[in-house]
Amino acid sequence: MASLEVSRSPLSSRRELEVRSTRQDKYSVLLPTYNERENLPLIVWLLVKSFSESGINYEIIIIDDGSPDGTKDVAEQLEKIYGSDRILLRPREKKLGLGTAYIHGMKHATGNYIIIMDADLSHHPKFVPEFIRKQKEGNFDIVSGTRYKGNGGVYGWDLKRKIIRLYRKEVLEKLIEKCVSKGYVFQMEMIVRARQLNYTIGEVPISFVDRVYGESKLGGNEIVSFLRGLLTLFATT
Amino acid sequence: MTKLAQWLWGLAILGSTWAALTTGALGLELPLSCQEVLWPLPAYLLVSAGCYALGTVGYRVATFHDCEDAARELQSQIQEARADLARRGLRF
């Protein structure tokens, strides 16, 4: 699989990434979906574009929890377009929760790195190669996106906790095993456990774009949930 | 030990030290200036912590980056994606 094409991308980063990642590195993106019929094709297209432009070996695992809006149909069309070696459909009958979605997805993942992100375009897949680069740079076990450092930021005020992270597969398996909370609190708990287990964590500044900016999303509910989650973690870890 | 337990322990130790010193239970004769500072210390520390927290949050909110470029870029890429996918046979 010698890569002698030099004209595909003017960026030296592409060759840099190819040289540094070994032939065996493969990145599995886990995309749990629920009613993402409109967003799913877009995020898959952007992911494919980012990975192809950087010459990264990847697969995208779509875990749909019986979405009533036909997300699964769209996923099947994407599988036909991009191939079943790149788009893996592993749906479930009904909404069974995020944690179990990740476990289910990981069982079918053939990559040695797992990327977890939301399917609703809250994070742009263009950052994924940066995550990969950062991970190689510091040999990190986990790389997390942050809106608060560097040139990270937001467009639109959505307080929902959106998380995008890259994990070594065995690290994610270990952490999921140890975590006990439910919902998005468990994503927070994963970082707490990771620190307890002395895993190394890197950060990449990312931008979050709220596509439906203009609709008010500031809800006290979200703040309350976050504080409750924080207190729960404080008292249990 | 959970973080909560650690904090409770720490507060218990500091609290009992402060109480012992301010009530003279240890029989120590502290100079008056020390006693004057020691007595309101917990309240003072609490208020300072609150001010620091509010100040930090305020500063961070004020300096939060606004990504207009990212929003524009995303919108144009969405157009591109829809066109390309439609060409490849995706029925939206």
From TrEMBL, chain A:
Gene Ontology terms: biological process: dolichol-linked oligosaccharide biosynthetic process; GPI anchor biosynthetic process; protein O-linked glycosylation via mannose
Keywords: Endoplasmic reticulum, Glycosyltransferase, Transferase
InterPro entries, sorted: DPM1-like, Glyco_trans_2-like, Nucleotide-diphossugar_trans
UniProt keyword ATP-binding present: no
Pathway membership: Protein modification; protein glycosylation
Gene transcribed to yield this protein: DPM1
Entry EC number(s): 2.4.1.83
Protein name, entry field: Dolichol-phosphate mannosyltransferase subunit 1
MF (Gene Ontology): dolichyl-phosphate beta-D-mannosyltransferase activity
Pfam families: Glycos_transf_2 (PF00535)
Annotated organism of origin: Sapajus apella (Brown-capped capuchin)
Glycosyltransferase 2-like domain residues: 28-179
